[in-house]
């Protein structure tokens, strides 16, 4: 499982990275404030005995090294040594990467990019990165179309190959559902809200009627908002790259629905990835939370033994995505061809299936879903839920949503400056919206 800095609501995930499953951050070769390390690639220096050293720049516990993939590749290619340079937080990694791309120095042979940053590369920096769509061993048809398109420029140059995605389900507590008179079977639970986020709201109202004392239906309004925003065909930018969040029907739907959750008293008023949120898992303080595959380990860690087989996972009202990354190869690297081969191998379906098996990073390669590591995957803590099948179905339904260069900023301020006030302070939705918009406009120099 991999936890690292993610954009928008995902940006807070990284603030909690060190609190996740034991050993999660172990195994990084280095941890610095720079995304590169050995400038322009390793050449054959540092590898010794005529070997070529390939450097891989990542953020957080990215999972590739921890899953043993580098070691496996080195065994298959004895003339290659792989060195990973890790920066713990993306907010430090990303600005430095942009600086090094501009100068053409200080780069690793391979650089990881978070999904919230990929649009900035495809839009303004694609000339500094290789076209990996033409790399040997890369099969476009093996990937989910929407994920492939995220790493591809308008003129068809694919600068990033997807490593993972975050298709979402709804994790729920069976014990609390039972006490509130709601079904507990995951298929029946999914039917409560299938196809409509408003049905999720109605299920919450039913829960509240008989809910155990001091429990809420959902953790917080900001999580609901972000899930709805991720399930639409358009969010903050339109297909032409124009900023449209103020007038977007999808943004309005997410904002209004989240506000209804807050005003109806269905939330535990929690901010995700804060200590109080962590403690609420342990105390069984809320019944549902939006969860991508990597969230399952987080819940297990925070809810502990007493939460085992109390939690389960059902389909979300509509498919949404939370998280995911890409691997890129800078043109300034000295080992571009070998780096491209490594990227192609690391992101191939077989390796993505291994990464899911070892780290719960869900494959962006659709061809991996038929492999046993994914197809047959179950999670004992969640009542043997067939998580491979649940999340594969969700992944195939995620909409192809335009991503803009400032998605992360907009998401963060809509949540932290806007909806959090509605949820925790009782601020009116209109007043909170105006405050969030003003903050966003200032941040974007609008």
From TrEMBL:
Q: What is this protein called?
A: Sugar-binding protein
- Superkingdom of this protein's organism: Bacteria
Q: Which gene name does the record give?
A: cebE
A Pfam family annotated for this chain is: SBP_bac_8
Keywords assigned: Signal
Signal peptide feature range: 1-21
Q: Which organism is it from?
A: Streptomyces alboflavus
């Amino acid at each position: 499982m991999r936890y690292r800095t993610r954009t928008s609501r995902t940006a807070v995930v990284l603030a909690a990275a060190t609190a996740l499953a034991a050993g999660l951050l172990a195994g990084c070769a280095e941890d610095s404030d720079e995304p590169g390390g050995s400038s322009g690639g390793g050449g054959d220096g540092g590898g010794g005995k005529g070997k070529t050293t390939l450097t891989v720049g990542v953020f957080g516990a990215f999972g590739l090294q921890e899953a043993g993939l580098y070691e496996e590749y080195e065994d298959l290619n004895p003339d290659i040594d792989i060195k990973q340079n890790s920066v713990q937080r993306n907010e430090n990694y990303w600005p430095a990467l942009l600086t090094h791309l501009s100068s053409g120095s200080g780069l690793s042979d391979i650089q990881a990019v978070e999904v919230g940053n990929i649009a900035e590369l495809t839009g303004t920096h694609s000339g500094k990165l290789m076209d990996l769509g033409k790399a040997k061993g890369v099969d476009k048809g093996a990937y989910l179309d929407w994920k492939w398109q995220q790493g591809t420029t308008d003129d068809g140059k694919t600068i990033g190959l997807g490593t993972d995605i975050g298709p979402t389900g709804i994790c729920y507590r069976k014990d609390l559902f039972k006490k509130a008179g709601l079904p507990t079977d995951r298929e029946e639970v999914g039917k409560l809200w299938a196809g409509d986020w408003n049905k999720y709201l109605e299920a919450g109202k039913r829960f509240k009627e008989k809910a155990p004392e001091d429990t809420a239906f959902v953790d917080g309004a900001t999580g609901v908002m972000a899930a709805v925003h991720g399930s639409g065909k358009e969010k903050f930018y339109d297909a032409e790259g124009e900023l449209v969040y103020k007038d977007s029907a999808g943004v309005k739907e997410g904002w209004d629905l989240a506000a209804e959750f807050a005003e109806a008293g269905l939330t535990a008023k929690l901010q995700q990835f804060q200590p109080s949120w962590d403690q609420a898992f342990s105390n069984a303080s809320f019944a549902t939370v939006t969860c991508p595959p990597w969230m399952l380990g987080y819940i297990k860690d925070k809810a502990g033994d007493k939460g085992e087989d109390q939690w389960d996972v059902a389909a979300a009202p509509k498919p949404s995505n939370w998280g995911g990354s890409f691997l890129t190869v800078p043109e300034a690297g000295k080992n571009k061809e070998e780096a491209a081969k490594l990227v192609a191998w690391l992101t191939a379906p077989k390796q993505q299936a291994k990464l899911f098996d070892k780290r719960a990073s869900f494959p962006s390669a659709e061809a991996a879903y038929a492999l046993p590591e994914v197809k047959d995957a179950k999670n004992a803590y969640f009542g043997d839920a067939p998580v491979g099948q649940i999340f594969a179905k969700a992944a195939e339904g995620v909409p192809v949503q335009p991503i803009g260069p400032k998605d992360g900023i907009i998401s963060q301020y809509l949540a932290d400056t806007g909806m959090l006030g509605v949820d925790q302070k009782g601020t009116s939705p209109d007043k909170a919206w105006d405050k969030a918009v003003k903050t966003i406009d200032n941040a974007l120099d609008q």
